[in-house]
Design brief:
Blueprint (H helix, E strand, L loop, with lengths): L9 E4 L4 H12 L3 E6 L5 H12 L4 E6 L9 H4 L4 E4 L11 H22 L5 E5 L35 H18 L5 E7 L1 E3 L11 H10 L11 E6 H13 L5 E5 L2 E4 H12 L12 H11 L5 H7 L9 H6 L7 H14 L6
Parallel strand pairs: 1-2, 1-4, 2-3, 4-5, 5-6, 6-9, 7-8
Antiparallel strand pairs: 8-10
InterPro entries: Epimerase_deHydtase, NAD(P)-bd_dom_sf, NAD(P)_dehydrat-like
Protein name: Nucleoside-diphosphate-sugar epimerase
Keywords: Oxidoreductase
């Protein structure tokens, strides 16, 4: 079992990200020193909210210039750290070259960070943010799994460079992490596998995660005619940050950990928003017909292929989150709280118009 000294600094890669922002906040609130690895420490728009967080907490934050594809660039940031959170990885559907824009930064970035851990004598534990995408590609796969649900023992075998390359990137990156972990005995690896992450961003005005794009589209009229009723899991970013913290600090934390609060679908999430905000905002309350998505989906978004629609729309999704509750002590909030808080933050920052 690994015990972490709370007086030592903690490295967070991709510290300005959607999930990382909440991890940083929780670490600062515990009075810890955060080494924030970012591409440009001088970019005030991206970093000032983290500096402001530090002012209001007992913790301390220091910024380090690092890049996923720049070998050795995490050396200074990792110095004296016993605990490393590797959250940096692209999550976007706006890519031109999947190999260059998704696979390379995910896999090479993971290798870069973990090989630096091998060279840094102080490191005792690395927590990698993977994804349920490293477990499955399409919701239709769930019914064929043991017990009819996704578990930590399952690996994604259906994604490829040509079909769902994001899922492929997460699978390859996590496999690389386990490969490097098993080649050494200095530090242990704990992996966090979240489903779709929603919730209020620490810094909504610069949030670039695909999760936030989905939230915005639910409220800005993009989906006013209806939502693609995708079967999926949803977890609140605040609960996910707590899962990360416990994955790093609980001595008994181990292995892969599915972080998913709700076995749900996009329609249920949209209906909650419509109930609370539908009188002022063009939030959808019905699902688009599957045949229509099959017809026009590929022209609207390159990820919405006919094959994807067939395997994910109106298809139930289910994952077993019992390990996260039992071993990482995660207490999940309601889907209603997640959706309402998410949308209210967007309203407060004028990111959606009524």
């Amino acid at each position: 079992m690994t015990s972490i000294d709370l007086s030592k600094p903690v490295l967070v890669t991709g510290a300005t990200g959607f999930v990382a922002g909440w991890i940083v906040k929780k670490l600062l609130e515990k009075g810890m020193t955060v080494h924030a690895a970012v591409r440009d420490p001088e970019n005030a728009k991206k970093t000032n909210h983290l500096r402001d967080l530090a002012k209001d907490t007992p913790g301390k934050i220091l910024f380090f210039k690092s890049d996923l594809l720049d070998e050795g660039s995490y050396e200074e940031a990792m110095k004296d750290c016993e605990l490393v959170f590797h959250t940096a990885s692209p999550f976007t559907s706006n890519y031109k070259d999947p190999q260059k824009d998704l696979i390379d930064p995910a896999v090479n970035g993971t290798r870069n960070v973990l090989e630096q851990a091998n060279r840094t004598a102080s490191v005792k534990r690395v927590v990698v943010t993977s994804s349920c995408a490293a477990i499955y590609t399409d919701a239709s796969e769930v019914a064929h799994k043991p017990k009819g649900m996704l578990t930590e023992e399952i690996w994604n075998t259906t994604a490829s460079l040509d079909y769902q390359p994001y899922s492929y990137s997460k699978t390859l990156a996590e496999k690389e992490a386990w490969k490097i972990s098993k080649s050494q005995s200095q530090w242990d690896l704990v992996v966090v596998n979240p489903c779709l992450v929603l919730g209020p961003a620490v810094n909504p005005e610069t949030a670039t995660s695909e999760s936030y794009t989905i939230l915005k589209q639910l409220g800005d009229g993009t989906m006013k005619m209806g939502v693609p009723n995708l079967g999926l899991g949803i977890v609140d970013v605040r609960d996910l940050a707590e899962a990360h913290l416990n994955a790093g600090l609980l001595p008994e934390a181990n292995g892969r950990n599915i972080i998913s609060a709700h076995n749900t679908n996009m329609l249920e999430a949209a209906k909650i928003l419509h109930k609370h905000f539908g009188d002022k905002y063009p939030v959808p309350k019905k699902a688009l017909p599957k045949w229509l998505l099959m017809l026009v989906g590929p022209f609207v978004n390159k990820m919405i292929t006919r094959d994807f629609v067939k395997k994910n729309v109106n298809v139930a999704w289910k994952a077993d989150n019992s390990k996260s509750i039992r071993e990482l002590q995660v207490s999940y909030r309601s889907l209603e709280e997640t959706m309402v808080d998410s949308f209210q933050v967007m309203i407060d920052h004028n990111l959606v118009k009524g």
